[in-house]
Write a structure and sequence with these properties.
Elements (H helix, E strand, L loop, with lengths): L1 H12 L3 H15 L3 H18 L2 H9 L18 E5 L3 E5 L4 E4 L1 H17 L3 E4 L10 H12 L6 E3 L5 H12 L6 E7 H14 L2 E7 L16 H26 L18
Parallel strand pairs: 1-4, 1-6, 4-5, 6-7
Antiparallel strand pairs: 2-3
């Protein structure tokens, strides 16, 4: 229940939820004949909603999150000791699969990790518990897809973590006793900086392997038209910004352990 409450608070803290609540307040004020404050509330809610629904705004919000370039391929086996994949969500009760399975985001990460493993021969570690009520953990769902559909063996499964910070801590507890401290980390480009930070704080040296990097292209006319997908992309970007703010607060409250590995492998580039 505690973690569910955390998810509710996080959802309410990031648009569109607060803007929709403000819009509802404006309509309620109009209904009780408080015209001026009602109109102001509606305007203050509607204008940001329309802006956030524009794909060009969503792209701008996401661009500030991306600080990495693509991993140099093929991945040399001496560059790291293992490939780590944090989960990116589940598809709950998917009718076509007869139950819970990996989400599209998780499948994209897993597919890239398998490609890296096949060209390097490195083992794969999967990390992810059940952050929402489900019959299977993210890590176990990934393992089944990897082994049953891609015929790719999985070396380690960490299935209790509920967020990125726990992905890092619990994966380190699993791999460090086997002498594995340098990992190739596979996650989405807009999530990579926060994930890399968490894994370094846990004690790893990290080789970033981001996916979902945006293509360089000039905005189109359609990118200025509000869409539902644009609003969803803006929400995801702001969730990530909120996560970064929380990590910054954690850093101020809990200074880094002197034993944590401070290095990456040159995969970062500010843009």
């Amino acid at each position: 229940m505690g973690y569910d409450f955390h998810l509710i608070l996080r959802t309410l803290a990031v648009p569109p939820a607060p803007l929709l609540l403000l819009l509802g307040l404006g309509l309620a004020l109009l209904a009780v004949r408080r015209r001026r404050p009602g109109v102001w509330a509606i305007v203050l809610a509607a204008v940001p909603l329309l802006a956030l629904a524009m794909p060009v705004v969503a792209g701008w919000l996401a661009s500030g999150l991306i600080a990495h370039v693509p991993l140099a391929r093929p991945l040399a086996p001496d560059r790291c000791q293992a490939i780590v994949v944090p989960g990116g969500g589940l598809a709950i009760a998917a009718p076509e699969w007869g139950g819970d399975t990996v989400s599209g985001s998780t499948l994209a990460r897993l597919r890239y990790a398998i490609a890296l493993a096949r060209e390097s021969g490195l083992p794969i570690a999967l990390s992810g518990g059940s952050p929402v009520p489900s019959t299977i953990s993210e890590a176990e769902a990934m393992r089944r897809v990897a082994e049953d559909e891609f015929a790719q063996p999985i070396a380690w499964v960490e299935d209790r973590s509920r967020n990125t910070w726990e992905n890092a801590e619990r994966t380190y507890a699993l791999l460090a006793p086997e002498g594995i401290r340098r990992v190739c980390l596979v996650t989405h480009a807009d999530h990579m900086a926060r994930a890399e930070h968490a894994f370094i704080r846990a004690g790893f040296a990290v080789v970033p392997a981001p996916i979902g990097l945006p293509a360089a292209a000039a905005p189109r006319v359609l990118d200025y038209i509000p869409t539902g997908s644009g609003l969803g992309a803006s929400e995801r970007a702001m969730q990530e910004w909120l996560g970064r703010a929380w990590y910054w607060i954690r850093d101020q409250l809990a200074p880094a352990n002197d034993t944590a590995a401070p290095a990456t492998d040159g995969g970062s580039q500010r843009t």
